[in-house]
Amino acid sequence: MTTAHRYHHGDLHTALLQEAGRLLMEQGIEGLSLRKLAERAGVSRTAPYHHFKDKNALLCALATQGFESLDELIRRQFKGATLREQMTALVREYLSFSVDQPERYELMFGRTLWKAGAPTPELKSVAYRSFRHYTERLARMLDGRLPKAGDPLRIAQASWATVHGLCRLLIDGIYVNQQDMEAVCEQSVALILSALDN
Predict the structure, then answer these.
(1) Angstrom distance (rounded) from CA 172 to CA 175
(2) Which one of 60, 69, 80, 107 is CB 3.0 to 4.6 Å from 120, fit for a cystine?
(3) Cβ atoms within 10 Å, residue 42
(4) Which of 15-19, 83-87, 92-96, 137-141 holds the top average pLDDT?
(5) How far apart are CA 97 and CA 79, in angstroms?
């Protein structure tokens, strides 16, 4: 069965996104183009344009997929007898998410779409939704621990920034020792929790 025959049931959009995801992992944002995607998918050069009007639209679709996966991660129930164990599990999962898909993570949070590009309404919606769910999850986890003057939104922003910074250190190769990363992860959670006790 040829490549073209695989897509005659209307699943070309999904197939293109899957192939684009592979290209993104292999060659990064710069190496991804609609022309190269068509060649890899075994379709005509114009076929991808029926699904994505340009490269920005394709990149937004890939980032949207990434945020949907991240949103699922955030909403997952993390096991742990204590608040610290639950938060540590969440941070570990988040770090693994970024390290397993560094190019997509960079696309999701980098300037390519948010500063230099034009994020689509769908991308903005799912990105903001994932942060809202993170804020809600954190508020539930910290129920009864928030300082009287504490703003759940600001606490969520500060803690997300901390975790995002750890992700960048891993992705950029500054932290390469997994044992060190485990210790830094646990210390980050300890700092967040100690700040809430003040």
Answers:
(1) 8
(2) 60
(3) 15
(4) 15-19
(5) 18
Taking the CB of residue 80, how many other CB atoms lie within 10 A of it?
14
Amino acid identity of residue 183, one-letter, is A
Instruction: For tokens 């060659």, name the residue.
Output: 27
Report whether 98 contacts 170 (CB < 8 A).
Answer: yes
How far, in Å, CA of 100 to CA of 108, rounded? 14
For 39-76, what is each residue's pLDDT tens digit?
988 899 999 999 999 999 999 999 999 999 999 999 88
3-state secondary structure string across the chain: CCHHHHCCCCCHHHHHHHHHHHHHHHHCCCCCCHHHHHHHHCCCCCHHHHCCCCHHHHHHHHHHHHHHHHHHHHHCCCCCCCHHHHHHHHHHHHHHHHHHCHHHHHHHHCHHHHCCCCCCHHHHHHHHHHHHHHHHHHHHHCCCCCCCCCCHHHHHHHHHHHHHHHHHHHHCCCCCCHHHHHHHHHHHHHHHHHHHCC
Q: How far apart are CA 16 and CA 62, in angstroms?
A: 10
Degrees to nearest 5, angle at CA 50 with 102 and 27: 25
